[in-house]
Design a protein that fits this description.
39% of the residues lie in helices and 16% in strands. It is an alpha/beta fold. It folds into three domains: 222 residues, 3-Layer(aba) Sandwich (Aspartate Aminotransferase, domain 2); 101 residues, Aspartate Aminotransferase, domain 1 (Alpha-Beta Complex); 65 residues, Winged helix-like DNA-binding domain superfamily/Winged helix DNA-binding domain (Arc Repressor Mutant, subunit A, Orthogonal Bundle). It has a seven-stranded mixed beta sheet, with helices on both faces. The chain has a four-stranded antiparallel beta sheet with strand order 10-12-15-13, covered by helices on one side. A three-stranded antiparallel beta sheet has the order 7-6-11, with no helix packed on it. Helix 1 packs antiparallel against helix 8 and helix 8 runs parallel beside helix 12. Bound molecules: pyridoxal-5'-phosphate. The site of pyridoxal-5'-phosphate has 12 residues, from helix 3.
Length: 457
Amino acid sequence: MPMYGREEIENLTKVIESGTFCDKAGGFMDQFRGDFAAALGAKHAITGATAMLLMQAIPGAIGAGAGDEIICDPVVQFHGIACLHTNVIPVWADVRPDNFLMDPDSVEERITPRTKAIWVTHLAGFAAEVDRLRDIADRHGIYLLEDCAHALFAEYKGRPLGRWGHIGTFSFNMGKQLPTGEGGMAITDDDYLAAELNKRIIFGESPEVLSSNYRMTEFQAAVGVAQLKKVPGYLEQYGEGRRLLDGVVNECEWLDARYQLPDSVVAPYFWSCLFHGERKNIDYGVFKAALRHSGARFGTGFLQVPAYMYAIFRNPNAYGNTGCPYNCHLYSGDVDWQPGHCPVAEDVIPRIVLTSNMVPVEQAAEAAKALRTAIELTEAGEVEPLAYSDVEQRLLQVVKDEGPLEPTEVIRILDDRGWEHFHEHGMRTNMENLRDRYPLKLSHAGPRKFAYHDLSA
Ligand SMILES: Cc1ncc(COP(=O)(O)O)c(C=O)c1O
């Protein structure tokens, strides 16, 4: 829903006219960093090409590497991937059943002498219990890192998220609250950490440490400066949409609104609630089918399973088929992530029912209406449970056989095989719908392609 207009165009024109498109003294990058730091009250703001790249630089910046562990929440994969990139072992802590955010009690249980940090994700703009997590980190002399990719301007106890930990990161990809195409920002109040991070993300001529180039361009910063001012207005509108959807759930005995910590401010991102059909003998497959019939786009199950069940964490392949970093001789722990490792996450993730919250209020009102319809259809038992259709089975097979594909590529392959012809929109919808399925599913692989997963394998 973000709006782009005169200010973005004027800023981009200035960049073009300047003839210098990279970070320069007095350019938009300086302004973006300054404005962002000021908006959140942080001492340092550090721009990067993406949030993921900034995250990859963090383990090195805090002195973590081979043989070390960082405790992550298993509802997303980003921090875990950043760990693997730096030979750090992600250790998965469980989540709370009511908001699926990191559970500090589980974190406490998973701390070992090898733990260097806790890496918490404020999923979909809700605050995790960062006061307790910070206390745990301080007691154990380790770092608290916050992934705020969904949580710009969210708060807990009057403090912005991203400033409870030692470093907080934000994403500006096109799906985020502040979109600049691609881009990320790290904030910290710590001079030493800011310097360590900067060393790793800009290569320079003679690097002091192993580093790379993760630089943002002036184009992104020019858009970022303009968008930053608009985000509070967007969030207000998204908040209205959130209230409409929560209103529907509050009247349903088998859907629970997501729990928000008292004294916290949510930055709406995707809206979600939890399915508890067992209370009323409601079949989840029927509700999923009813959501499809309702006309709005709802997803179920989010990742479907905790991150540690994905192949990349079961069989990391960054260093050939060596099994690194799990079997590194410097690592004295044991990686054994069998089902049951985070029982709450395993139970709650499939129950997540979600839809985008970053839409105009009118669209959220439509979604709320559709959700009410889906609830009524389900309770009336008027739909058959969701199953893989023939078309869906073919799509899954094609992506499995050919690797990550764009919808247009799948259409071409189906045409070549003489199967049903699809238009791009229809194919994209089919592929999007397969993101919510279990055990065979598709996931986004970059902005255009979809990848295949068999989660039972
Ligand atoms: C929770 C979370 N963390 C990190 C990232 C990575 O952000 P980027 O796309 O800027 O690398 C994302 C992106 O979707 C995200 O959702």
